[in-house]
Amino acid sequence: METVEDARAMRSWTRARRTSGETVGFVPTMGCLHRGHLSLISIARARCDRVVVSIYVNETQFAPGEDFEAYPRKMAEDLEACRSAGVDCVFVPRAMYPGKEEPAHETYVDVEILSKGLCAQTRPHFFRGVATVVTKLFNVVEPDVAVFGKKDYQQWRVIRRMTRDLNFAIEIVGGDIVREEDGLAMSSRNLLLTLEKRAEATVINRSLREAKALAERQPTACGVLVDAVTQAINGGGGVVDYVQVMEPESLTPYEGNVSSPCVIAVAAKFGSVRLLDNIEIMCEGVKR
């Protein structure tokens, strides 16, 4: 496994593989890898001849006062995990933006509609930072396939739309959520939870599964599902940021009874740690 820090060297690495007739899969991460990340690496490996993983905590998706400094970093362990997973190259850029002594970074990428609502309600800066750094990584790594986890559902959809709109010749693949044994969606931020809040956070998945079962069993109004999930989380030790029932691709909020496939997405804080989760609802068999 190779480790590359320089953008030009990374681009040359990919182009050499492509010249040899090989395809390159890419898994962008912010490090602190867990089984969820490893599942994305497995998807990339199954689809491509070579796999690149990037490790970079992107400062432009954090606002002042958020957890940029506290975000867990475990570089030595991450590199070993990549090696064990059969990754061919790890891109660890020293920086993705100009230093303080250089002219300021002025170019950003905005996905105008899909970046609104949901996470953007409380983190309006977030998706501009994500779309910009992913664009920069795509331009450096030049992959054939890129794999993103669907736990960050809105982010996955934003990246898919951005890739289409900017004519990147990259297939964007979504990886299913990987969970702990008690149902909590795997996240690097789980390490920041206290033992008490870690135990309480399991209510997120539990409430989502109950809402899914209800909607797939009988005609159910979106508001009923939202209220049930919200009350369960707020009553279980969390503070809800949002709960939304939405159309899977456009992220448009549903109204009335759930009558076609949809997604319930959640963001909630447990202590100071903000967690995301979602669940897909398939309700075609229920008479409406």
Automatic annotation (TrEMBL):
Keywords: ATP-binding, Ligase, Nucleotide-binding, Pantothenate biosynthesis
Swiss-Prot/TrEMBL GO biological process terms: pantothenate biosynthetic process
Pathway listed: Cofactor biosynthesis; (R)-pantothenate biosynthesis; (R)-pantothenate from (R)-pantoate and beta-alanine: step 1/1
Protein name: Pantoate--beta-alanine ligase
Family: Belongs to the pantothenate synthetase family.
EC number annotated for this UniProt entry: 6.3.2.1
Source taxon at top rank: Eukaryota
Organism: Ostreococcus tauri (Marine green alga)
GO molecular function: ATP binding; pantoate-beta-alanine ligase activity
A single GO cellular-component term on record: cytosol
HAMAP family in UniProt: PanC (MF_00158)
Swiss-Prot/TrEMBL catalytic activity: (R)-pantoate + beta-alanine + ATP = (R)-pantothenate + AMP + diphosphate + H(+)
